[in-house]
Amino acid sequence: MSNLKPNTSLFRRKPIAPAEGNLKRVLGPIDLTTLGVGAIIGTGIFVLTGVAAAKYAGPGLVLSFLLAGLVCAFAALCYSEFASSVPASGSAYTYSYTTFGEIIAWILGWDLILEYGFASAAVASGWSGYFQSLIAGFGIHLPTALTSAFNPAKGTYFDITASAITLLIALLLTRGVKEATRANGVMVAIKLIVVLVFIAVGVFYVQPSNWTPFLPFGWGGVTAGAATVFFAYIGFDAVSTAAEEVKRPQRDLPIGIIASLAICTVLYIVVSLILTGIVPYNLLNVSDPVAFALQYIQMNGLASLISLGAITGITTVLLVMMYGQSRLLYSMSRDGLLSPVFSKISGKSQTPATGTWVASIVIAFFAGFIPLGSLAELTNIGTLFAFTVVSIGVIVLRRTQPDLKRGFRVPFVPVLPILSALGCVYLMLQLQALTWVTFFIWLAIGLIIYFAYGRRHSLLNRS
User: Fold this and answer.
1) Distance between CA atoms of residues 229 and 236, nearest Å
2) Model confidence over 400-441: pLDDT tens digits?
3) What sign has the CA pseudo-torsion 70, 72, 78, 84?
4) CB 59 within 8 A of CB 208
5) By the 8 A CB rule, do 177 and 24 touch?
6) With contact defined as beta carbons under 8 Å apart, do 226 and 299 qualify?
7) Which residues are bridge partners to 127 per DSSP?
8) Which of 65, 85, 327, 398 has a CA positioned 20 to 30 A from the CA of residue 353?
9) The CA-based dihedral angle spanning residues 182, 185, 190, 191, taken in that order and rounded to the nearest 10 degrees
10) For residue 213, is the peptide bond before it cis, meaning its omega torsion is within 30 degrees of 0?
11) Are 71 and 420 spatial neighbours (Cβ–Cβ below 8 Å)?
12) By the 8 A CB rule, do 350 and 24 touch?
């Protein structure tokens, strides 16, 4: 008989070691950087800039992006250290499993399911809006009932295009990670060209008088704007979920995370300055602010090109968010906390194809029925919570495993990780009370699933 005894501790920890998985190591630093840029530049720059300027920050939107970018930069450094020392899929879930223990890892993993799932649904919803606007230019109109999320007052019941693009992305992801990143690279190049064209043309139409008053809503508007546009930065953390498919994760993951965030922060700041310089901020409460700015200066042809670029850009965000979701579920399933269906590898593509399809169908459902605003708020709080835990985790792991080999080290520990955690909590406090209530309900549901299934089936339940 076996002498193995169950390890029932809620804080049992995984050993830090390269994962023994069946995923192909095919990605390099350029692949990871384009993956990060693909995830970050999309809904934020093409949709949220206008709303944040008109409702919260005015021309001070540039400060909102700087504030949100600074918080993300600190968090990115913390992610980079973990990514270089814990070379396994699962991102913050895996990091917390090796640092804090299983119950904290489950909470964070369940939180990340919320982040990636609702972010994917929100992005699909934004994609649908741009796509319907584009085909309307050719005289094609969908039935009203199928144009947006469930809202009987407006006669809409299901967003069919949002669901359709979700399932198409799932098809691409299940063909293989190299094929998906190759397609992502092409789309990233297209949207970067579109953004640079807007900057090159728009700079000649900037009216400095539009920047006055610079802070029409005061500093409170800037911080509220930062909490809103934080959605624009979500994605760099998805790079770390690719750890088991990277050729040299200790070196390449920090490069991909930091480079993608740096590129996108610079572009956000420049675009927000030009956007509010072309159009008075109070006119920017539209769903397509970049295209609207070009229409404002009577460049309708170029505005159509921007709309096409926006669709491409938002597609890459959806691709990376759904990729991150599938790899997170793969890691949690492999650890025994979720059903084995999510870690079943397809022999031909060597991807978790079955789990990807299951998750994608659920995302398609939410994208079709739930409004964009509700999805974005829940995504923000989930991401900020994950960033907070990872930042604290760096300090803890430095103390508990000081000799662990780290390909990248966060400078000024513990000061910088503490600043990162405090910045994330500060932005979380700017979100609505209803968002907090929904978030805690989500975590409660997760704990029920853990104690009913995950705790008993965990691989660490055997010593």
Assistant:
1) 15
2) 998 888 877 888 999 999 999 999 998 888 888 888 999 999
3) negative
4) no
5) yes
6) no
7) none
8) 85
9) 130
10) yes
11) yes
12) yes
Bridge partners, 246 (sequence order): 27
What is the distance, to the nearest Å, from the Cα of residue 87 to the centroid of all Cα atoms in its chain? 20
According to DSSP, residue 44 is labeled: I
Which of 93, 104, 96 is closest to 329 using CA atoms? 93
pLDDT at 41 exceeding the cut of 60: yes
Please, are residues 383 and 116 in contact by the beta-carbon 8 Å criterion?
A: no
Q: How many residues does the chain have?
A: 463
All residues at 6 or more sequence positions from 130 whose CB lies less than 8 Å from its CB, including other chains: 46, 287, 288, 307, 310, 311, 314
Q: Is residue 246 classed as helix, strand or coil in its secondary structure?
A: strand
101 vs 32, which has greater pLDDT? 101
pLDDT exceeds cutoff 60 at 18: no
The model's confidence at residue 3, banded by pLDDT at 50, 70 and 90, is very low
Determine if the peptide bond prior to 352 is cis (ω within 30°).
no
**How far is it, in rounded angstroms, from Cα 455 to Cα 447?**
10
Q: How many CB atoms lie within 10 A of CB 314?
A: 29
- pLDDT of 1 > 70? The answer is no
Q: From CA 180, how far away is CA 337, in angstroms rounded? A: 27
Q: Which amino acid, residue 435?
A: T
Measuring CA to CA, how many Å separate 328 from each of 59, 91, 163, 173? 38, 7, 21, 14
What is this structure's pTM? 0.81
> Could you say which DSSP state residue 231 is in?
G
pLDDT in tens, 354-408: 888 999 999 999 888 887 666 667 788 888 899 999 999 999 999 999 888 887 7
Q: Is residue 367 a contact partner of residue 124, using CB atoms and an 8 Å limit?
A: yes
pLDDT at 241: 67
**Tens digit of pLDDT for each residue in 338-355?**
999 898 887 676 778 888
2 band by pLDDT with thresholds 50, 70 and 90: very low
Are residues 82 and 95 in contact, defined by beta-carbon separation less than 8 angstroms? yes
Is 80 exceeded by the pLDDT of residue 140?
A: yes
Q: CA-CA distances (angstroms) from residue 298 to 62, 202, 277? A: 25, 12, 15
Contact predicate 16/98, CB 8 Å: yes
Give the integer Cα–Cα distance in Å for 424 and 76.
12
Give Cβ neighbours of residue 339 (< 8 Å, ≥ 6 apart): 333
